[in-house]
Amino acid sequence: MKPTATADSRTSLSADDWAEAALDAIAVGGMDAVAVEPLARGLGVTKGSFYWHFQNRDALLRAALQLWERQQVDTLLSRIDPAASPYERIVSLFKAANMSVRDGRLYLAIAAAADNPTVQAFVQRLSERWISYLDESYRALGYAGPRARQWALFAFATFMGNLQVRRDTPQMMPEGQDFSDYVKLMIKTLIPREARGQGAEEEDDHPHVVPMRRPGS
Amino acid sequence: MKPTATADSRTSLSADDWAEAALDAIAVGGMDAVAVEPLARGLGVTKGSFYWHFQNRDALLRAALQLWERQQVDTLLSRIDPAASPYERIVSLFKAANMSVRDGRLYLAIAAAADNPTVQAFVQRLSERWISYLDESYRALGYAGPRARQWALFAFATFMGNLQVRRDTPQMMPEGQDFSDYVKLMIKTLIPREARGQGAEEEDDHPHVVPMRRPGS
DNA sequence: CCCTTTCAATACGCCACCGTATGTAGACTC
DNA sequence: GAGTCTACATACGGTGGCGTATTGAAAGGG
């Protein structure tokens, strides 16, 4: 697992160690926590070390964001089990979003700084990836283009919103069985019907969610 | 519309002017933008003025948050038309959430600082209010206690997520008719069935799809 | 007219962080 | 065992924001 460059590690630091420390700092204190001297203190060195590895603060930020993007893409790719049904893929994505508290905070903190030109491209690429992944899953569920995109955005927004609620008002989140029910409700609502593996290939305007009889009015 | 204390206003400032300026700054630059000297510059004065109206920066923050809370409660109360159906109330809440870009950014920025002890109480009270409002609406739609609460949280999270997407990756948001369809999809999905309110205008091309039926039917 | 009150300008010390310049201990090189 | 490269430490100047202390000016009140 590598020393991870904790303060007691006596081996010398690498640029990646700084980037990881920066991500940890972002998850806790937001983008402004990427400050050279505090990070150096946390790593048990002085900024003399930092300016050997990086040209300036922004270079560290870019390195951290690249590391973040790689990690995000990895977790996304790890969800792509080719044998899995679209339903399973969306569900596992949903559960991944609720898994690591740190990663959630990290995502939110970075996204919140999307007005920063250094950050913008990363956030856009990542968001696009997630939404595209969802989009494809919904297409595989039989939804036509625009509809699939709408469902994908809907699901993505719900993911993000849950991250937020968990971060900002965790006491609002139900616990235990109630939480399970909550998640199940969202999953059932966001993935209507076709839990079955085979993707329909219909070209209709709206979800071809056939086997639902109309409400008898 | 009151002078709003723009830089050219020659009348002397009030504490409320500072609080409003602080809210504007938060909406644009986050909590850290509540900085005495920059705000003073924006108002066309020096911090000599500020420290006459406030004891310190945190006092301004509290004043701004109180102003924010009042405004939020007002917009919430303005949604409570006693004659409106629960359906209409949720819909109008949903549309209110998509209305003012500034207010959205404001909410997100403040919520993101919920770890700050000064901010925490405000965010919790406000979130609780919104969720309770949704909760009651869902109860009025016939959902039992835990279920109504789950739907309320679900809807709230979706609201927040949409705010985020609009702030961080606005180009992901559909536009024009596609956006309308997107909103309609969310509304139809989040408010299942009981569109009893006669004000519900459904000029939709296909019959109202029943999103889900109780399991084990 | 003076005097108080209100609102603001100016000047100061303090701290945190950025970036640079330079020093330096250890390893490695031959 | 002198040179060189690596990975830091130290010291310095600069910037931006906080808070305080002091001064100033205009308005209204007696």
Key terms:
217 residues, Tetracycline Repressor, domain 2, 0% strand, mainly alpha, disordered N terminus, elongated, 64% helix, 9 helices, disordered C terminus, DNA-binding, homodimer
Explained architecture:
The structure is a homodimer of 217-residue chains. Chain A has 217 residues and is mainly α. Chain A has a domain at 65-190: Tetracycline Repressor, domain 2 (Orthogonal Bundle), CATH 1.10.357. Helices cover 64% and strands 0% of the residues of chain A. Chain A contains 9 helices and no strands. The first copy, chain A, has helices spanning 15-29, 36-43, 47-53, 57-79, 86-97, 101-112, 117-140, 145-168, 177-190. In chain A, helix 1 (15-29) crosses helix 4 (57-79), helix 4 packs parallel to helix 7 and helix 6 (101-112) packs across helix 8 (145-168). The radius of gyration of chain A is 21 Å and the shape is elongated. The N and C termini of chain A lie far apart (61 Å). Chains A and B meet through helix 6, helix 7, helix 8 and helix 9 of A and helix 6, helix 7, helix 8 and helix 9 of B. Chain A binds a DNA duplex (30 and 30 nucleotides) through helix 2 and helix 3.
